[in-house]
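Reading a protein record of the kind used here takes only a little practice. These numbers are not coordinates but entries in a learned vocabulary of local backbone shapes. Here is one such record, which you should read through line by line.
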Amino acid sequence: MGAGPGDPNLLTLRAAELLAKADAVVLGDDEAHRPLLRHCREGVEVVEDDLVKRAKHGQLVVRLCEGDPMLFSSITEEVAACAAAEVDFEIVPGVPPATAVLTYAGIPAASSVPEFRIVDAAQEQDWASHAACPGTLVIYNGIGDAVAIGKALIAGGKPDTTPVAVSSAGTTTEQYTVVSSLGRLQPDLKHAGFTEPALIVVGEAVGLRDKLSWFETKPLFGWRVLVPRTKEQSRSLSEQLVAYGAVPEEVPTISVEPPRTPQQMDRAIKGLVTGRYEWVAFTSANAVKAVREKFEEYGLDARAFAGLKVAAVGDATALALVEFGVKPDLLPSGEQSSEGLVAEWPPYDSMLDPINRVLLPRADISTDTLVAGLTELGWECDDVTAYRTVRAAPPPAPIREAIKGGGFDAVLFTSSSTVRNLVGIAGKPHNVTVIAVIGPQTAKTAEEFGLRVDVMADKPSASALAAAVAEYGAKQRQAALAAGDTPRRPSQNRRGARRRAR
């Protein structure tokens, strides 16, 4: 099965279908294929050999190969072994690097001259005949001999001004491309530090990269971004960061746990069902989750909210309610915070409101802002601990070292507690790291810990925070280009960081 060029999202539908059915998967020597295991069912075995033996015993075995298994990837021996043992086999094509890496580098396979030639430098080649190729020449396995290959093509008649692009780790967020010419390969590649897998692309099509480059020009391309949230909360944020070209790393700093004693929540749910409350106010998606789990425990569903008014502090909380089947009656139109919610909350009116009680299922460390505001408006609040937030265990040593040593380009703080807990379990981020916060309160906490706040979301949501960081990255890139400099990631600005142009 072809595993594709590197980006796990370029796997074919047929490949994903078979991985989902596989009993065993052979990764080979390429650990880069490991993310593809997400398509497999739970309990799949990752093995190194015995393919035929396993298949003879009725197992479906998938052997992953880089790119396309029929292009510069010899599988003839394995296929012959299957045939000899009378084991059925299928060869699943994959997206080859020869086209995918070029596309991700912004280089068309064929432009004005419709000829496209792929060669394997690991095999003996007649470079003089390849020099006569008028179109695009793509060279596999040639990075170690790139300078010699360039000289051989020039000796074969190719002009020394012919554009060349060398791209490594293609289609991944580690992709790195240097544009040169046949005559300048030696000085331009001297400090590039290229390793396989890499492709050498020769031809006039390389000149179109300035106009067609779309991947390496993403606003956060290659940025290593720390997402200090609970695992459940970070998924959608990480997906958004990936879309901006970043490499998110989820480091839980908060663990959400049930209350120490369930009685308070049990009474609240009973009161909710029996008509004790006029309003229920949710200040987080975690509070919605806690109430939903209690409902399921009692065999209830969203219909139990009938006759109640429901308020949500912001868009993320409102979305969690809608997924539960509840449409909020009140959502702040301005600042999405406890203050914003109080600003729009109607005062208690004994003529209009038969009940003056509000249920507030919240975290154990919530502030009193909402309770104080509602009390002032004439409401009586039942402030109930729906869940506890506790500090998570420290991350592994390499993560802690990267945080303190400037290995991360940005860190996204989504609450004051994530600031306190991250510093507590891993230390303060390095001063080159971009500090992004979800709102003023989180910014204040970050500054109290001596952190410089670089980015603040225009509204308190994780999505807005990711967008704000992307905008910051885009502006930094544009400023560098306008000054005639090569754009650099924040981590590349720390002392001793490896300096290479992108």
About this structure: Residues 498-502 have pLDDT under 50 and may be disordered.
